[in-house]
Amino acid sequence: MNLRALTLLSLASLALALPELGGHDFRAPGPFDSRSPCPGLNALANHGYLPRDGKNIDYEMINQAAQDAYNFESGFYVDAVNMVFLFNISTTTRPNETFHLFDLARHDTIEADGSLTRNDIYFGDDVHFDATVWAPVARDLGLDHRDRPADRFVTVETAASATRNRYALAKHVNPQFNASMLQQQFEYGTTALYLLTLWDDDQNAAPKAWVKALMGEDRIPFQEGFTRPKVVKTSERIQNMTVAVRAAAGAGS
């Protein structure tokens, strides 16, 4: 068997081994698909846990997808989904029952200034990934420095510092930065959310490769070794994680 055949065989074996197959392979969104400012929700659509077009989503879809992919407890996203209907921001034909992912980009209703991966609405686009915004955050997280085992994980302290720096930069460059109550509530909660989503309980940290995939590509890092966690991620855990991140950032609880 020649080298080319061996290479093709190896690639085929790898593809069959990846847990993302079986209907949950990654597919980048098309030009008419709906996406949100949230990498975690976008990844659910990109992998088919939610409708791949990101449209006409209801609470049960979100609830089941979050359980199936990330092992969040049932009801984890109920408050976030209820906000869509409470503020009447759905643009579907059933606005009291369904929404499109893009509806979550409503500024200062659900979306707030200071995103780690999206630019502020002041600059015109708060939905699509912005490499210029993400680059300094990724640098602060040390995502491209994973040579030693000890350097392969994002800790609470590292994540808190990177988020604090991102807010400072956003406030400096955005003359209309809105430090609203919503922004203050989301401030470190979104950091806590991505950490908990990718948390490795054995390492008490989040693998850098997983963070890079989810936050930088809206992709669940199956290729990098992520599997659905055995431990259920509860609302109590996200609250505790938020408190820990805020404390590490010097923002109090």
TrEMBL record:
UniProt-listed Gene3D superfamilies: Chloroperoxidase-like
Leader sequence segment: 1-17
KW Lipoprotein (keyword) present: no
GO molecular function: metal ion binding; peroxidase activity
Keywords associated with the record: Heme, Iron, Metal-binding, Oxidoreductase, Peroxidase, Signal
Cofactor: heme b
Name of protein: Cloroperoxidase
Organism: Aspergillus saccharolyticus JOP 1030-1
